[in-house]
Amino acid sequence: MLVAAGVFFAMWRLAGQAPPPEQVVVDAVVEVATPVADSVVIDLPTAVPDGFPISDLPVLQDSSLVPAFNPHTYQGNRPNHTFQTYVVVRGDTPNKIAERFGISPETLLGGNPKLSEESNLLQTDAELIILPINGVLHDVAPGDTLESISLRYGIPVEDIIAYGPNNLEFPYRLYPETQILVPGAVRDVFVWTPPSLDTVRSSSGGIAPLIVGTGTFIFPVGSRNFTQFYWYGHRGVDIGLTEGTGVAASDTGTVTFAGWNIYGYGNLIVVNHGNGFETLYAHLSGINVGPGQIVYQGNIIGASGNTGNSSGPHLHFEIRINGNPDDPCWYLGC
Ligand SMILES: [Zn+2]
Question: If you measure from the C-alpha of residue 117 to the centroid of ligand 1, how many angstroms do you get, rounded to a whole number?
């Protein structure tokens, strides 16, 4: 606008026409749904003497022709999702359901975050959201932007915009309490890291003898009443048990953690087997061992319970190799 006004002014001068009127009223031309100021009044000099340098003309503070939106009142579109749902039947597992709908187990978690909670999951009659493509259904929180969501999941902004039902048009306003599907994203599952063997050796004083496990594993309990198997959203097996059932060390090793775990495991024992393997025993009602203590395969180290994030008495049992959770059924045969 500044340039245009300057050009017009110069043209007036060249054509020898009368000087511009005292005030020029410029109508706002803004293509947004919300009203902005109807007009902007610009002061120009009443008369311009000969030789008046154009560079001395007043700077026009006029943005009324800029096609900008008002971020505080702009009304965009809300997402327009339609999701298939599925009602869990007896015997379902996350992997089976994902396979049936041609999505990944990660995507089952992407649409149903509660599936990662520790419990007797996939209860019959629970209704699951089946996302149409692999990805994560993100709950928009206050302060979220497309950029922050893009960063969080490592998915380009363009991919999020390109997914039609997200209904995103420039300027891409997000609404709290709506949901954006982030194509290709995977919902993070937090994996807690137990203390290392060296940490426990030094804190327990002296040099503890190095105990190495047999490399074979036994079931920590007699029951085979599995209530949940290993999958992306659950990095162990759950075995339903009467509270107070003895829990045995699955292999020989050194206890690296014995106590309350704040990340949902409740009362937890971790045994490091000195060969890259660790075993975890969670939701216990009782603990018979302490950090630094050596235990042998089959020793009773605690009692099963229902502590921490648990919806019924059961043992949550994990096997980790070099810090990474693995499926205990590979080692034990379930
Ligand atoms: Zn579990």
Answer: 8
Query: Top-level CATH class of 84-183?
Result: alpha beta
Question: How far is Cα 8 from Cα 287, in angstroms, rounded to an integer?
Answer: 87
- Cα(334) to ligand 1 centroid in Å equals 15
Give tens-digit pLDDT for 304-325.
Answer: 999 998 888 999 999 999 999 9
Contact present, 166 and 213 (Cβ < 8 Å) = no
How many C-alpha atoms does 253 have within 13 Å on its Cβ side?
30
User: How many angstroms does the Cα of residue 228 sit away from the middle of ligand 1?
Assistant: 7
**Topology (CATH level 3) of domain 197-332:** Glucose Permease (Domain IIA) (2.70.70)
Ligand 1 centroid from CA 315, angstroms: 7
Between the CA of 235 and the centroid of ligand 1 the distance, in Å, is: 7
Q: Cα of 234 to ligand 1 centre, how many Å?
A: 6
Strands (E), 124-212: 127-130, 135-139, 179-183
Rounded to two decimals, what is the model's pTM?
0.71
Domains 84-183 and 197-332 share a fold: no
Closest CA to 109 of 132, 126, 128: 128
For the chain, domain boundaries:
2-56, 84-183, 197-332
Neighbours of ion ligand 1 (CB under 5 A): 118, 238, 316
Nearby residues of 143 by Cβ (< 8 Å), 6 or more positions away: none
Q: Is the pLDDT of residue 22 over 70?
A: no
